[in-house]
Each structure stands twice: as structure tokens, then as C-alpha cells.
Specification:
Radius of gyration: 23 Å
Protein name: Bifunctional chorismate mutase/prephenate dehydratase
Domain Prephenate dehydratase: 87-263
CATH superfamily of the largest domain: Periplasmic binding protein-like II
EC number: 4.2.1.51, 5.4.99.5
Largest sheet: 6 strands, mixed
Order of helices and strands: HHHEHEHEEHEEEHHEHEHEEEHEEHE
Distance between the termini: 39 Å
Bound molecules: prephenic acid
Function: Catalyzes the Claisen rearrangement of chorismate to prephenate and the decarboxylation/dehydration of prephenate to phenylpyruvate.
CATH architecture of the largest domain: 3-Layer(aba) Sandwich
GO molecular function, one term: prephenate dehydratase activity
Length: 356
């Protein structure tokens, strides 16, 4: 077959695909009407996950899993926009890693609102000015994002999904490498690249700013003073900077976990994770007894963080992640047992335990 013939074949398939996508959009429109009538959530992470898992299992063609996920991410993004004008609030500015995580989850067809801080994201979702919010919760190199943990204590919002995003910081500037005197970046990105900075720019003046995108902007504005940024390749592109070195973080597998917060949590998918907060009585053995509740019901605890309660000095709140869904009998029993040993237990939600 020559090129023209092959392309004719592709045109024919594209025509059929578009007709099928239009038929799908018709059904999606009906789903939207039913959901609005019954007061159901438009975004259904459990349905998205089961649909993706089924398609990946069925796939016998040449397309890798990554491509299937990307294609369907955009098909379902178009569906979300058709069903409702879905608004996603995220910790901005544009092109930040949180923005990129939000796009990874919700695609390009929905509306995004960049906000200035974590509290604003929680607040806008709680006031229903945005349908969902996206915030970082932890980084595999630098650990917990304590602002996010603290905001859950008083928030009525629930976690409905998680997003894992590989973070690859770059050195970006509009000046040659030898002229760099100052490095701008977000404190987390500076910490992730600490070893690289010490080796490559031991004399540089390090300046912490509110985001890596802001760092890219400053590298453009202050180029004559020898400024460069440690930022995302997208942030560099947005501000017309050249990428002088890619992937400069100290660990190759530097990943950040983000959470999607909304009014409701997610139903069972069969491979879930549950997050909760608890506070213990100030007595010997309280923490051990609280944690034994998980052991007793064979629940795997994948994470624990402690944070000051902010109500009383030297009183702590523990943030825990468990394998399983809060509607699974063993997790439910484990939480009931935990409650016996705690002064407060707050369930933050259960959501699909998806990887990168
Ligand atoms: O099945 C639904 O609940 C839909 O809204 C449809 C659909 C889809 O395109 O398949 C779209 C968005 C949801 O998050 C999940 C699935």
C-alpha cells in the first residue's frame, strides 16, 4: 500500500471514530440529566477507574496503556464539560505542578481556576464556587505538605481521588549558565534539587518564591542581574526561558501525590485507599493501642504523619492512610476499634489507589 492509500484508510477510521464519539456524547448528555435529576456528583472517579481498567484489559492492539489512559482522559474530560460546566480550583499559578496534576486528572475540556493559597482552594470548593479542588499532599523526596494536612482538620470537604505526578525540575534562564548568580524557586523544588545546587552553583544566591512559575517569571524580569529559575519545563516555556539542564532533582523518581477534594468521597472500586485523622488521649500507650486497631483487622497502614493540634500546646493530630475502602468490612471494623482509643476520629475519604 502506498502513503495515499494508507491515509485514506486513516480518514475513513477517523470519520467512524467521530461518529462514535458523537453517539457517546449523546449518552453522556443523558447521564448528565439523570445525575442532575437525582442530585448525584458529575465527576465519578470510581466509574472512570473501572472503565479504564476494563479497556486496558481488553486492549490487544499496539497502543500502550499510557496512550489509552491519555486518550480516554480527554474523552471523559469532554464528557464532564458536556454534563456540567465543571470548575476545578487549584493551587496556582498557571503551569505550576498542581495545574499539571489537575490536567492529568480532569483533561483539557473543563474550566480551571488558579488560586493563591491552599486555604483559598479549600474555601472556594466548600462555598461551591468550584466543584473540585486539587492540592499537593506529599512529595516522595521532601515528605508531607503540612498546610494541606492542617486544612483538613476543620474542613467539611472529602477526598475523592489522588493524582501521582513525576516531578522533573529544570534549570531555566535567558542568560548563559556562566552568568547565573541567583536561583529562584519554590522551597520544595529547592529542597528537591539541594545536592545538584551544591555541586553546580555552590556560590549562588538562593531565593524562595511562592511557586516555580513565579520563579520563571522572575528569571525573565531579572535576567540582567544574573537570575535563573528552577521550575517545570512548562513554566520555562510559558516565560520564554531556555532549558539549560533537564531533570536536575536529586532523585530520579521524584513524585508528588496530589488530592482531589470535593463534597463527597468516592464509592468502592476494589483497589482503594482511605485517609483519616485522629487525636489520642494524653496517656501512656494511647498511640500504640490506637494503631493496634489496624493490626487487629489486618489493615495495611501506608502512611502516618503527626501535626500540632493548634488548639493546645504539645497536643498532636495524626494523619493516616490505609489500604482499602471505608465501606470494606475490615476497614470499617478497624475504624470502629480505633474510635475506642481516640478523643477524635475524622474520616477524610476513600478513593481509587491509582499509580502514576
Ligand atoms: O458514567 C458517568 O457517570 C459519566 O458521567 C460518564 C463519564 C464518561 O465519559 O464515561 C464521564 C465522567 C465521569 O467522571 C465518569 C464517566
Amino acid at each position: 500500500m502506498n502513503l495515499d492509500d494508507i491515509r485514506k484508510g486513516i480518514d475513513e477510521i477517523d470519520g467512524k471514530l467521530l461518529d462514535l464519539l458523537s453517539d457517546r456524547a449523546e449518552l453522556v448528555h443523558q447521564v448528565g440529566l439523570v445525575k442532575k435529576r437525582d442530585g448525584l456528583q458529575i465527576y465519578a472517579p470510581e466509574r472512570e477507574e473501572s472503565l479504564l481498567r476494563r479497556l486496558i484489559e481488553r486492549n490487544k492492539g499496539r497502543l500502550p496503556e499510557k496512550s489509552i489512559r491519555a486518550i480516554y482522559r480527554e474523552i471523559m474530560s469532554a464528557a464532564l464539560a458536556l454534563e456540567d460546566d465543571l470548575k476545578i480550583a487549584y493551587l496556582g499559578p498557571e503551569a505550576s505542578w498542581t495545574h499539571q496534576a489537575a490536567i492529568k486528572k480532569f483533561g483539557h475540556s473543563v474550566e480551571y481556576t488558579p488560586l493563591h493559597n491552599f486555604a483559598e482552594v479549600f474555601d472556594q470548593v466548600a462555598r461551591r464556587r468550584a466543584d473540585y479542588g486539587v492540592v499537593p499532599i506529599e512529595n516522595s523526596t521532601e515528605g508531607a505538605v503540612s498546610h494541606t494536612l492542617d486544612l483538613f482538620v476543620d474542613s467539611p470537604l472529602q477526598i475523592c481521588a489522588q493524582i501521582l505526578l513525576r516531578i522533573e525540575n529544570c534549570l531555566a534562564a535567558s542568560i548563559p549558565r556562566e552568568q547565573i548568580k541567583t536561583l529562584y524557586s519554590h522551597p520544595q523544588a529547592l529542597a528537591q534539587c539541594r545536592g545538584w545546587i551544591l555541586k553546580n552553583f555552590p556560590e549562588a544566591h538562593l531565593i524562595e518564591v511562592s511557586s516555580t512559575t513565579r520563579a520563571a517569571q522572575l528569571a525573565t524580569e531579572k535576567a540582567e542581574e544574573g537570575a535563573a529559575a528552577i521550575c517545570s519545563p512548562l513554566g520555562a516555556e510559558m516565560h520564554g526561558l531556555a532549558v539549560l539542564e533537564e531533570s536536575i532533582q536529586d532523585r530520579a523518581t521524584n513524585t508528588t501525590r496530589f488530592l482531589v477534594i470535593g463534597e463527597k468521597t468516592c464509592p468502592v472500586t476494589g483497589k482503594d485507599r482511605t485517609s483519616l485523622l485522629f487525636a489520642i488521649h494524653d496517656r501512656p500507650g494511647s498511640l500504640v493501642r490506637a494503631l493496634q486497631a489496624f493490626d487487629q483487622f489486618h489493615i495495611n497502614m501506608s502512611k502516618i504523619e503527626s501535626r500540632p493540634s493548634k488548639r493546645k500546646d504539645w497536643e498532636y493530630i495524626f494523619y493516616v492512610d490505609l489500604s482499602g475502602h471505608c465501606d470494606d468490612p475490615e476497614v470499617r471494623n478497624g475504624i470502629e476499634e480505633l474510635e475506642k482509643h481516640c478523643s477524635m476520629v475524622k474520616l477524610l475519604g476513600s478513593y481509587p489507589d491509582v499509580g502514576e
